[in-house]
Amino acid sequence: MKKITSTLLISSVLALAATSVSAGTLETVKSKGHVQCGVSTGLAGFSNADASGNWQGLDVDVCRAVAAAVLGDATKVKFTPLTAKERFTALQSGEIDILSRNTTWTLTRDGSLGLNFAGVNYYDGQGFMVSKAIGVKSALELDGAAVCLQSGTTTELNLADYFSANGMTYKSINYDTSDATIKGFEAGRCDMLTSDQSQLYSLRIKLENPSSAIVLPEVISKEPLGPVVRQGDDEWFNIVRWSLNAMINAEELGLTSANIDSMKTKSPAIERFVGGQGGKLGIDDAWSYNIIKQVGNYGESFEANVGLDTPLAIARGLNDLWSRGGIMYAPPIR
């Protein structure tokens, strides 16, 4: 008999647990009156609590959109901060209703954890950050480097593949949280820090002197990030998926939180959007209107949280609409 590794056994048990708690999430959310959302322990621009404890960010807005769609009120969300290691267990066990935490969509995660990715709200790729003082211009100059990274992420495998393919070696210095990685980097425990580029920009502004570090040009992976739900509950999966799709479609239609009331009858496509067809999702017909009125379209969320006028100053790039040279695209609401 082949020996089953502890990792596979744990994954199988958790996948079964996910199936057993998945059904009826919509009813559970309505009953308790809020959406329980799993987020990061603090990643500026994506999910981060301000000094007053108010959560904000691109990932946070996905959860607010779901609350607006289901409960008619985008404020009816409670947030559970999770490390990379904790996030999937929290979703599988039913501790949270949705995971919206800069999480990469991969085959392994989609096929073996009892989870479903509901879409992509940020197209990313892994990169490298170094101190300007070491004078490095390319990751290919980092043979033998000490590397700070976060455990329990796709970062580890991507890093190993990249260095192996280029005949280089490295020393891995692992941390449980992103905050710990940037502190290790700032303290000089490593030569570089690797993570998704979006995270690198978020972590850099936590440095005492952000201008002392640069993000190198190499992007070594595809990292489509998006919200995750449990398998076995198609109703909830559809609601989360179409809440995100509504934000993307609204930007394409020119609908914003400020103009949606005046734009309701401007075209048949907008009338269909605002009409909502909520019955097909098991929710109120005002679901899509509530999302845009209370949260905004995808572009509004992007610019407010990570765009060029924020400390992160991230250009839209791949995350611009398909009609403007990006790859952000959603099926139509009709």
Describe it for me?
Strands 10-9-11-8-12 form a five-stranded mixed sheet, sandwiched between helices. About 35% of the residues lie in helices and about 15% in strands. The chain is α/β, with parallel strands linked by helices. It folds into two domains: about 220 residues, D-Maltodextrin-Binding Protein, domain 2 (3-Layer(aba) Sandwich), CATH 3.40.190.10; about 100 residues, 3-Layer(aba) Sandwich (D-Maltodextrin-Binding Protein, domain 2), CATH 3.40.190. The chain is globular and about 60 Å long.
Beginning-to-end CA distance, first to last residue: 53 Å
The biggest beta sheet reads: 5 strands, mixed
CATH-wise, what's the superfamily of the largest domain?
A: Periplasmic binding protein-like II
Quote the CATH topology of the largest domain.
Answer: D-Maltodextrin-Binding Protein, domain 2
CATH class of the largest domain: Alpha Beta
Kindly state the mean pLDDT as a whole number?
A: 92
Number of strands: 14
- The percentage of residues in β strands lies in 15-25%
Unreliable stretches: 1-13
Q: Any idea what the radius of gyration is?
A: 20 Å
Tally of distinct domains:
2
| CATH 2nd-level architecture of the largest domain | 3-Layer(aba) Sandwich
The DSSP helix count reads: 12
Task: Describe, in short, the structure shown.
With 334 residues, the protein is α/β, with parallel strands linked by helices. The protein has helices spanning 6-22, 25-32, 58-71, 87-92, 107-112, 155-165, 178-186, 197-204, 234-253, 268-275, 287-294, 298-305, and strands at 35-39, 48-49, 55-56, 77-81, 98-99, 115-117, 122-124, 126-131, 145-150, 170-175, 192-196, 213-215, 223-225, 228-230.
